[in-house]
Design a protein that fits this description.
The chain has helices spanning 11-23, 46-53, 113-126, 150-163, 177-183, 197-206, 220-231, 260-267, 276-280, 286-295, 322-340, and strands spanning 2-5, 29-33, 36-40, 58-62, 82-84, 94-96, 102-106, 130-132, 167-170, 186-189, 210-213, 238-242, 272-274, 300-304. It is an alpha/beta fold. The strands form three sheets. It has an eight-stranded parallel β-barrel, surrounded by seven helices. A four-stranded antiparallel β-sheet has the order 2-3-1-4. A two-stranded antiparallel sheet has the order 5-6. α3 runs parallel beside α4 (150-163), α3 runs parallel beside α11 and α6 crosses α7 (220-231). The radius of gyration is 21 Å and the shape is elongated. The chain starts with a strand and ends in a 10-residue tail after the last helix. The chain binds phosphoenolpyruvate (PEP) and manganese (II) ion. Residues 108, 278, 304, 314-315 line the site of manganese (II) ion. The site of manganese (II) ion has 5 residues, from loops.
Length: 350
């Protein structure tokens, strides 16, 4: 349920509602929507709602049924802006959300030191603000390269130290989480793990920012519910990523659901990014899909880049060169500045 405080409610009255909820062993979450304080509690109960309505300062108690709560615009009306990186890890802090264009780029997998460092310097030079690279890879075949594991994390940390770029890397299982969380600035939960609820809870509990990818067969509602798992741990730092869904179309690896961007934007306050690489499956499609994502109002992009894409060990067909990436960055800036000056992405409430 959402408890909407009166715009005139005092801090003390808000505190009393929080204390009331805690006395009933409920975990209240406090936010701000439409200029007033909002408290979300995860239990839906009419008797409880009636009790809450009696408390001073409470304007309205709104049931949410089985719908989203903490990801909802009703809970937080303003776009969430996350600051990732910075702190003790040696990366530069980067903002994402509310119309930013935060580009995350790097190889599909960390393969070796030279390639990673060359790639990291080149993407930073071109304007990427974060470095991606998989050390633990989710592969379709158990016989294919599974990533360098902990060694890959060490190389990523070296690339961060050399460039200042915050790191985004995937965590495949709860077992790997301590090592990945120790290294990563942002923990990526991949499409295949979007509904791994034990992993979602565990990444949430680390308190580190999480990049949550949409499952290839997941609806927007399911993506939001997976984000709720993370937010319900008290960790509000979640970035949502549209990376294509499986359809009957075979010309692309997946079908990029561009509409998911404005759909999510309307319902949810979290930053939204688009991954054209895993949607496209082909190099020639990366630029048009990336630009479509920007035009649809994404707050950032996740793009696979390699200094020698033909030699990439994983996802070579969809990986672009560092030169192509630099060209694409120029187009991304042009489209982003043109839509930022229009009302195209600000109409979520209409
Ligand atoms: C990735 O980004 O490296 C990846 C495996 O993507 P996805 O989970 O979207 O398939
Ligand atoms: Mn990949």
């Amino acid at each position: 349920m959402l408890i909407l405080m009166k715009p005139t409610a005092t801090l003390r009255q808000t505190g009393e509602v929080l204390a009331f909820s805690e006395r009933l062993s409920l975990r209240p979450y406090l936010s701000q929507a439409q200029g007033r304080r909002v408290i979300a509690i995860t239990r839906e109960d009419e008797t409880l709602a009636a009790g809450l309505r009696e408390l001073p300062g409470v304007d309205e108690v709104r049931p949410l049924g089985s719908g989203i709560k903490l990801t909802s615009r009703l809970f937080r009306s303003e776009d969430s802006v996350l600051i990732v990186g910075g702190g003790d890890r040696g990366s530069r802090p980067v903002a994402i959300g509310a119309g930013s264009m935060t580009v995350i780029a790097g190889p599909c997998a960390v393969e070796d030191r030279n390639m990673l460092l060359e790639c990291a310097h080149a993407v930073r030079e071109a304007g990427a603000l974060m470095l991606r690279g998989g050390a633990f890879k989710p592969r379709t075949s158990p016989y294919a390269f599974q990533g360098l594991g902990v060694k890959g994390l060490e190389l990523l940390a070296e690339a961060r130290a050399a460039t200042g770029l915050p790191l985004v890397t995937e965590v495949l299982s709860v077992d790997d989480l301590p090592a990945v969380a120790e290294c990563a600035d942002v923990l990526q939960v991949g499409a295949r793990n979007m509904q791994n609820t034990a992993l979602l809870r565990a990444v949430g509990e680390t308190g580190r920012p999480v990049l949550l990818k949409r499952g290839m067969m997941a609806t927007v509602d399911e993506l939001l519910m997976s984000a709720e798992y993370i937010l319900a741990t008290g960790n509000q730092s979640v970035i949502l990523c549209e990376r294509g869904i499986r359809t009957f179309e075979t010309s692309t690896r997946n079908t990029l659901d561009v509409a998911a961007v404005p759909v999510l934007r309307r319902r949810c306050h979290l930053p939204i990014i688009v991954d054209p690489s895993h949607a496209a499956g082909h190099r020639y499609l990366i630029a048009p899909l990336a630009l479509a994502g920007v035009a649809a109002g994404a707050d950032g992009l996740l793009i696979e880049v390699h200094p020698h894409p033909d030699h990439a060990v994983t996802d070579a067909e969809q990986t672009i060169s560092t030169e192509k990436f630099a060209d694409l960055m120029r187009q991304i800036r042009a489209v982003h500045s043109s839509i930022r000056s229009s009302a195209a992405t600000s109409g979520w409430a209409d």
